[in-house]
Design goal:
93 residues, alpha+beta, Alpha-Beta Plaits, 5-stranded mixed β-sheet, 5 strands
């Protein structure tokens, strides 16, 4: 299977609510690689990649819910066909 890379922007109440930590936990549980970081505009930016479309779909579905204290308004997903080769999932501080 070909590797798929997703660039994802999550908006809503997603900063200061442990969103990045829960996102990393979810990605680790699904064995996905990539990064998550807070953005200056209050959104959270995620890059994730895998060869398993079902796992990526499960992860995107989870992002619509997010962490217990978050309120997700929108999840924008952009698909790239080429992976960058992340070896783990990291929080960028």
């Amino acid at each position: 299977m070909a590797c798929k890379h997703l660039n994802i922007k999550v908006t809503g109440k997603v900063q200061g609510v442990w969103f990045r930590k829960y996102t990393k936990d979810q990605a680790d549980a699904l064995q996905l690689n990539g990064t998550v970081q807070n953005m200056p505009d209050g959104s959270v930016y995620v890059e994730v990649e895998s060869t398993d479309d079902a796992l990526l779909d499960k992860f995107i579905k989870w992002l619509h819910t997010g962490s217990p204290l978050s309120r997700v308004d929108q999840v924008d997903v952009e698909t790239k066909e080429k992976c960058t080769g992340y070896k783990s999932f990291e929080i960028i501080r």
